[in-house]
Design a protein that fits this description.
Layout: H1 4-15, H2 26-50, H3 56-83, H4 110-134, H5 138-165
Length: 183
């Protein structure tokens, strides 16, 4: 099956002529820096979650997100270095530990880990969307569109797993005043 997002990106690329790209503007540089800083923080958070969960499905999702984040970090780092942008600080990789060795009071419950992952992904999706819109250079905009699409596809998979497990935090139903009641 053809990936819709990849097809859209390739279509946009074919319509543009960025053979001689203009210098990045300060907003594009800031967007790259902030997104990479978010990926760096997320990397450590996800590694910590991997060492805390005993749920095999959540573990697989955390590992998938770690791989996606690593791929995005590598692509964005390479772009930033090519453009001469200073990289944000990154933490060392955390050692993997046995989740059963983590004391219960220090281990986050699986539902909390999953919701923490959702917040991290939502933040990066919003950052990527804003960055794509603010970018004048097509290559920068496309990079953020790709990042956003990848995170959206992963978020859909995560949401399904969370609904199945009862981990999705759902706000109460809203019934406007004066609306007919359902019985």
């Amino acid at each position: 099956m053809v990936n819709i997002f990849e097809a859209a990106v390739e279509s946009i690329k074919s319509l543009t002529d960025d053979k001689d790209p203009k210098p990045l503007h300060v907003g594009e540089v800031m967007s790259c820096w902030v997104y990479l800083a978010g990926l760096e923080l997320a990397h450590t958070t996800v590694q910590s979650g991997i060492s805390m969960t005993t749920d095999s499905e959540l573990l697989a999702l955390l590992e998938e997100d770690l791989a996606l984040g690593t791929s995005q970090r590598n692509r964005l780092r390479a772009f930033m270095l090519q453009e001469g942008i200073t990289l944000p600080e990154s933490s060392e990789d955390l050692p993997r530990s046995d989740p059963n060795a983590v004391p219960l009071g220090a281990r986050m419950p699986d539902g909390v880990l999953a919701n923490e992952l959702v917040l991290k992904i939502a933040s990066l999706i919003l950052q990527a969307a804003g960055s794509a819109i603010d970018s004048l250079r097509t290559d920068v905009a496309l990079l953020f569109i790709q990042f956003q699409a990848e995170k959206l596809m992963f978020a859909a998979k995560l949401k399904t797993a969370m609904q199945k497990r009862g981990w999705l935090n759902v706000p109460p139903a809203f019934v406007p005043p004066g609306a007919p009641t359902r019985e």
